[in-house]
C-alpha cells in the first residue's frame, strides 16, 4: 500500500457550530455511561453522601477546563492534549503516550458502556418483555456485550457521518432519563418520603479513613465528568471559538454537574447505599422501581440503553480514528493506517480497537473499566494543566481567554492527587489495566522506532 502523502493545502472545516449547539455538545458529551452505569459503584465507596464525590469530581474537572479554555483559545486546532503536550515539552515520546492514553480511555469507556448495555439495560428489557431470569453476571450478557462491541465495529467500518444536530437529539434522550430520576426525587421530598439523614453518611472501610473513602469515590465519579475535553476537537468547526468556547464549556459542565448532584441526592434519599452498591450498574433502575412503582420500567431501560449506545459509539469512533491518525503520522506501524478500498474507513485500526475492547469486556467489570478510564484521563489532565503554565512563555498573535494562574496549578495538583495510588485509594486493578494498555503503546512505539527511526510528530494531524 502506498504511503499517505501529507496534505499541505486543505480547505478549512465548515464553521457551522454556534454557541447553543456547542453548549448541547458539551452537555451531551458529559452525560452518558458514567451516571447511568456507575452510580451504584460510587455509592459502594462513599455511602449515603453519594452527592459529594460527584460534586468534587466537578470541581476537579472545572479547574482543568480553565486550562483547556486557555489552550484552545490560543491554539484553536482539533488536536487537544497531544498538541498542547507537544508544544509545551517537545518530547515526542511523551506526546505519543498522551495521545495513546486518550485513545485507550476511549476503549475502556466504550467497554464499560458495553457491559452496561448487556448486563443492565438490555437485560432489563428482556426481563420486562420475555421474563428472562438470568443474573447480570451470566455469560449470556457478557456475550451480548461482546456482540454489541462487534456491532459498533460494523457501524464504524461502514462509516458514520456524525452531525452535532444528531447529538442534540441523543442528548435530549439521555437528559430525559435523568430528569425522570430528579422528578421522582422531588415527588419523594414533597410527600415526605426518603431518608434525608443518609445524605451525610460516609462509609469508611476497615483500615481506611474518611479522607481516603471520599477520594476513592471521587476518583471513580470523575469518570462521569469526562467528555468535556472532546469539545476541543470541534474548535475548527465553531464560529468564533475564542469567544464562544469559555461560556459554552463552563455552562455545559455546570449544567451536567447540577444534574448529577440532583440524581445522586435522589438515589440516596430513596435507597440505602448498600442496596445501591448491590444493584451496581442497575442502581438508577432500582431508584425508578422504588420511587415510582407505577412508572413503566422498560421506558427508562430503553433510555439508558440509548445513552450507553451513544457513549460507546462516540468513544470507539474516536479511538479508531486516533489510532489511524498516529499511523498516518508514522509514529506507530503504518499498517494501522490502512483504509478499506470500498468503505474508505480505517479497518485495521477498527479491528485492533475492537479486539482490545472485547478483551476488556471479557475480563473486567464496569467499576474497573470506569476507574481505568478516569485514571488515564487524570494523568493526561495533569500534563495538560502543567502544559498550560509552560506555554504562557509562548506569545500569541491574538487575544484569547486566560485562566487565572491558580486554576491550572490547582488542576494539576488535584488531578495528580486523584491519580496517585497512595492518595487516591484506587484499587490495584485500575493500574494493572492501564499499565497493560500503555505497555501495548510502548511496544508499538518501539517497533516503529526500530523500523523507521525517529519521526516528527504533528499532533494537529492525529485527529482524523
From TrEMBL:
Domain of life: Bacteria
Keywords from the named record: Cell membrane, Membrane, Transmembrane, Transmembrane helix
Parts of the chain that traverse the membrane: 21-38, 50-72, 93-118, 138-157, 169-190, 210-228, 249-271, 297-324, 345-364, 370-391, 403-422, 428-447
Keyword field contains Transmembrane: yes
UniProt name for this protein: Amino acid permease
Record's bilayer topology term: Multi-pass membrane protein
InterPro entries attached to this UniProt entry: AA/rel_permease1 (IPR002293), APC_superfamily (IPR050367)
Localization terms from the record: Cell membrane
Record Pfam families: AA_permease_2 (PF13520)
Amino acid at each position: 500500500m502506498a504511503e499517505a502523502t501529507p496534505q499541505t493545502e486543505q480547505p478549512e472545516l465548515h464553521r457551522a457550530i454556534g454557541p447553543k449547539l456547542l453548549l448541547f455538545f458539551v452537555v451531551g458529551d458529559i452525560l452518558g455511561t458514567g451516571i447511568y452505569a456507575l452510580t451504584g459503584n460510587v455509592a459502594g465507596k462513599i455511602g449515603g453522601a453519594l452527592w459529594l464525590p460527584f460534586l468534587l469530581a466537578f470541581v476537579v474537572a472545572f479547574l482543568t477546563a480553565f486550562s483547556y479554555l486557555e489552550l484552545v483559545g490560543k491554539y484553536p486546532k482539533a488536536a487537544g492534549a497531544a498538541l498542547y503536550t507537544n508544544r509545551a515539552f517537545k518530547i515526542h515520546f511523551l506526546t505519543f503516550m498522551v495521545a495513546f492514553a486518550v485513545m485507550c480511555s476511549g476503549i475502556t469507556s466504550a467497554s464499560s458502556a458495553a457491559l452496561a448495555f448487556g448486563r443492565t439495560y438490555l437485560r432489563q428489557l428482556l426481563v420486562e418483555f420475555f421474563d428472562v431470569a438470568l443474573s447480570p453476571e451470566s455469560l449470556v450478557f457478557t456475550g451480548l456485550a461482546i456482540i454489541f462491541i462487534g456491532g459498533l465495529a460494523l457501524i464504524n467500518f461502514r462509516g458514520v457521518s456524525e452531525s452535532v444536530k444528531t447529538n442534540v437529539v441523543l442528548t435530549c434522550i439521555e437528559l430525559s432519563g435523568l430528569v425522570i430520576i430528579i422528578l421522582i426525587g422531588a415527588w419523594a421530598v414533597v410527600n415526605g418520603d426518603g431518608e434525608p439523614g443518609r445524605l451525610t453518611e460516609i462509609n469508611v472501610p476497615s483500615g481506611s479513613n474518611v479522607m481516603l473513602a471520599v477520594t476513592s469515590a471521587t476518583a471513580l465519579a470523575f469518570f462521569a465528568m469526562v467528555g468535556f475535553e472532546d469539545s476541543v476537537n470541534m474548535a475548527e468547526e465553531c464560529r468564533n471559538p475564542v469567544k464562544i468556547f469559555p461560556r459554552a464549556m463552563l455552562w455545559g459542565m455546570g449544567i451536567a454537574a447540577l444534574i448529577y448532584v440532583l440524581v445522586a441526592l435522589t438515589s440516596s434519599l430513596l435507597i440505602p447505599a448498600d442496596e445501591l452498591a448491590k444493584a451496581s450498574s442497575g442502581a438508577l433502575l432500582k431508584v425508578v422501581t422504588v420511587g415510582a412503582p407505577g412508572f413503566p420500567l422498560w421506558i427508562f431501560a430503553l433510555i439508558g440503553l440509548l445513552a450507553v449506545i451513544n457513549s460507546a459509539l462516540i468513544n470507539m469512533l474516536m479511538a479508531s480514528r486516533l489510532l489511524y491518525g498516529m499511523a498516518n503520522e508514522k509514529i506507530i506501524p503504518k499498517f494501522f493506517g490502512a483504509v478499506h478500498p470500498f468503505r474508505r474507513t480505517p479497518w485495521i485500526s477498527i479491528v485492533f480497537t475492537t479486539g482490545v475492547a472485547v478483551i476488556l469486556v471479557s475480563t473486567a467489570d464496569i467499576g474497573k473499566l470506569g476507574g481505568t478510564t478516569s485514571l488515564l484521563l487524570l494523568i493526561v489532565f495533569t500534563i495538560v494543566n502543567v502544559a498550560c503554565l509552560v506555554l504562557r512563555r509562548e506569545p500569541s498573535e491574538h487575544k484569547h481567554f486566560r485562566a487565572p494562574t491558580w486554576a491550572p496549578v490547582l488542576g494539576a495538583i488535584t488531578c495528580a492527587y486523584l491519580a496517585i495510588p497512595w492518595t487516591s485509594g484506587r484499587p490495584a486493578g485500575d493500574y494493572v489495566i492501564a499499565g497493560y494498555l500503555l505497555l501495548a503503546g510502548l511496544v508499538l512505539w518501539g517497533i516503529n522506532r526500530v523500523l523507521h527511526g525517529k519521526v516528527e510528530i504533528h499532533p494537529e494531524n492525529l485527529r482524523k
